[in-house]
Task: inverse folding
């Protein structure tokens, strides 16, 4: 019961973050992209049978990430998102909702289709 309550809270938080990201709030956009990256990297870790250490190392090396995921666009997203998260937790600007949502949806589609 506790796990499902925690999941419900997690989903509500994610929905709120997405709503704020859609409104063009830079920090929410960054948080949403971080969540996308983390979920995708967990999928990669499980499907490829690699360690968290190997995943962390690949987030700093675009060639290694490309080799790991086999998709240059997803690799670029992961590398850029991880770089932004490492450098500064306060984004300097935001994408308009008209730019952010289609880009986020396209990346999510690729992540979901990835094998």
Result:
């Amino acid at each position: 019961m506790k796990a499902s309550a925690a999941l419900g809270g997690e989903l509500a938080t994610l929905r709120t973050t997405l709503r704020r990201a859609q409104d063009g709030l830079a920090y929410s956009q960054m948080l949403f992209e971080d969540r996308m990256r983390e979920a995708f990297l967990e999928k990669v870790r499980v499907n490829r049978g690699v360690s968290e250490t190997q995943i962390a190392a690949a987030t700093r090396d675009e060639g290694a990430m490309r080799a790991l995921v086999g998709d240059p666009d997803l690799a670029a997203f992961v590398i850029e998102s991880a770089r932004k998260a490492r450098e500064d937790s306060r984004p300097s600007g935001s994408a308009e909702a008209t730019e952010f949502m289609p880009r986020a949806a396209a990346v999510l589609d690729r992540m979901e289709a990835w094998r």
User: Anything to note?
Assistant: The chain has six helices and no strands. The first helix runs from residue 2 to 22. Residues 58 and 64 are 5 Å apart (CA to CA).
